[in-house]
Design a protein that fits this description.
Chain lengths: 292, 285
């Protein structure tokens, strides 16, 4: 095939996918930034350039700061917890455990269930007095009933638990895949050398899993900004925005208050956060490990 | 931690008389597994029993299907299921076609701009359409597609993940097969159809399972873009159902919850191994 023909084929094959990709990812990302400098068009009034006014609103918006702080705590708690648990799960499931496939099924099942649906089940768990958690608390320990989702102190933690439950089994899969690529000869060699099990884990297994850990943590970070479905069912962001996250707030601003310009400004914050993560990935991650 | 993790090379240890370590690990794994299964088991319990047994666990509580009947009668779930089925098949077909063509271009053709364009594709792994709800809503509105099933699927058709996954697979296919087919007179599309696609079947299966379960479960975007029974997928239908009637009994809501997750859950139970392997395959990059 001539070089010219290669070019034409390459471009033609790529064309449909690229158009769609541009239309729903790259172009909207750019227009989001542009629209954050304009006012929201209402009725006949068209959007006009307002400079940094939206960003001034942002800085003076206590809800924004609350939601951002929530989201950072949410990320800080769910990421390490789900990574730790998923590694533990993978090590267990990779082992010759009794009833292994049943255990694996139980860990993985939350991954295939819709978050919006399982939120209903969790909602019941958390119901004050009547819910399962309170029944156990009251029945076994004689403690008073507690409004788990009604209190500012506990509501975010309750949401974190659901998130960890939902995603740990998913991350387990990545660790499981990685564990299966570790050659058994390493283990044999370590055994001949008389290395203890813990030495073997910390000196061999854990370092070999490092690329997976980085990959999983990137996914966990993205998820912590993206998984908001359960908020709709469980709390609606309340009480007093204590369980609201950035994407949920964007939804509210855009589709409840119809302030699309401000929603665009909030989206820019989200995009900046994600870009920072991407840069972090670029600098801290040996890309050769993942991208052949 | 070390106790647990050191379990890995348990079989290498000298034959212990009684392995406490193993016992501890088994108990630990089972406890966590039970905790993880609890919400689902609980939902199954309430859904199949009368409301009186919602928080009352008696072994011989009467089993009933009434909750399912009630949920089914209260909302047009049949229609929602139909919508979701159309939606996930449409997305799957769209993704297979678009991603296959693009992945083939990246894997086997040299053309100017390919590296830059590939970087743009990878960018979508980070900036997903899920996040750009405001602008994507405007685009769909300008296309006059608000409240259609197509509108739910469009932003996901060209998937960066799918292109990446298929490109990696295509790259592992030996050039000799490609060349052999060309010598026999096959066109580039013929080669794709006869050599690459058949050899990438496991990847298609893996990607298909991941895609279907992802879009079956998707909620935020469908919530925004649909507002009628004729277009709503089950996830949105369920949220509408659970929200309107705050007086609805838990057992009925849980029956509805199980129904929405049912098809995926049954598929998962039947093809557990394939599911896990598919996600694993999709995960190894």
């Amino acid at each position: 095939m001539t070089q010219r023909l290669q070019w034409i084929y390459g471009w033609l094959l790529l064309f449909p996918a690229m158009v769609m990709l541009m239309a729903f990812t790259h172009v909207p990302a750019v227009t989001t930034v542009i629209n954050s400098f304009f006012s929201t068009p209402r009725g006949r009034r068209e959007a006009k350039f307002v400079g940094l006014a939206n960003y001034e609103n942002l800085i003076n918006d206590p809800t924004f700061w609350k939601v951002l702080t929530n989201n950072l705590w949410y990320a800080l708690a769910t990421i390490p917890a789900s990574i730790f648990l998923s590694l533990l799960m993978a090590l267990w499931v990779n082992d010759k455990l009794k009833g292994r496939s049943l255990v694996r099924m139980s860990f993985f099942a939350p991954t295939v269930l819709p978050l919006i649906a399982v939120a209903n089940i969790w909602l019941f768990f958390y119901t004050p007095g009547f819910g399962l958690i309170d029944q156990i608390r009251m029945g076994f320990f004689g403690l008073p009933e507690n409004s788990w989702l009604g209190s500012q102190e506990t509501v975010l933690i309750c949401m974190m638990v659901v998130t960890i439950w939902k995603e740990a089994g998913f991350f387990m899969i990545f660790y499981l895949a990685a564990l299966q690529t570790i050659p058994p000869s390493l283990r044999e060699a370590a055994a001949i050398e008389g290395a203890s099990r813990s030495t073997f884990f910390w000196r061999v297994t854990f370092p070999l899993l490092m690329p997976t850990t980085l990959f999983v943590s990137i996914n966990a970070v993205i998820n912590s900004f993206r998984m908001v479905d359960h908020i709709f069912t469980m709390t609606g962001g309340g009480p007093d925005n204590a369980s609201s996250l950035l994407l949920f707030y964007i939804y509210e601003v855009a589709f409840k208050f119809w302030d699309t310009a401000y929603a665009a400004t909030l989206t820019v914050v989200l995009l900046v956060l994600l870009s920072l993560i991407a840069l972090g990935q670029f600098f801290f991650m040996d890309r050769k490990v993942h991208y052949r | 931690m070390s106790q647990t993790l050191s379990h890995i090379n348990a079989e290498l240890a000298e034959k212990p008389r009684f392995d406490y370590d193993r016992l501890l690990n088994t108990v630990g794994a089972w406890t966590l597994a039970l905790l993880w299964a609890a919400p689902l088991l609980y939902a199954i319990w309430t859904a199949f029993h009368p409301a009186a047994y919602e928080a009352n666990f008696e072994l011989f509580a009467p089993v009933t299907l009434e909750n399912f009947q009630e949920a089914w009668a209260a909302t047009p779930f049949a229609r929602y299921f139909f919508n979701t089925t159309i939606l996930v098949s449409m997305i799957l077909i769209g993704q297979f076609v678009l991603c296959t063509l693009a992945a083939y271009a990246f894997a086997r053709f040299t053309f100017p701009g390919s590296n830059f364009l590939f970087a743009l594709v990878l960018l979508q792994l980070l900036v997903m359409p899920d996040i750009l709800i405001v602008e994507n809503y405007k685009t769909i509105r300008d296309l006059r597609l608000v409240d259609t099933i197509a509108a739910i699927g469009l932003p996901y058709m060209a998937s960066g993940f799918g292109i990446f996954l298929l490109r990696q697979t295509f790259k592992t296919i030996p050039m000799e097969l490609d060349e052999a087919a060309r010598v026999e007179g096959a066109s580039p599309l013929g080669v794709l159809w006869r050599v690459y696609i058949p050899l990438a079947k496991p990847t298609y299966l893996a990607y298909g399972l991941v895609s279907v379960s992802h879009h079956w479960n998707n909620f935020l975007w469908p919530l925004i873009i649909t507002n009628s029974v004729e277009t709503r997928p089950v996830t949105v239908g369920l949220s509408v159902f659970a929200a309107i009637d705050s007086g609805v009994e838990w057992s009925v809501i849980n029956a509805a919850t199980l129904m929405t997750s049912g098809p995926l859950l049954i598929a998962f139970l039947l093809f557990q191994r394939q599911f896990v392997q598919s996600f694993m395959r999709a995960g190894i990059k």
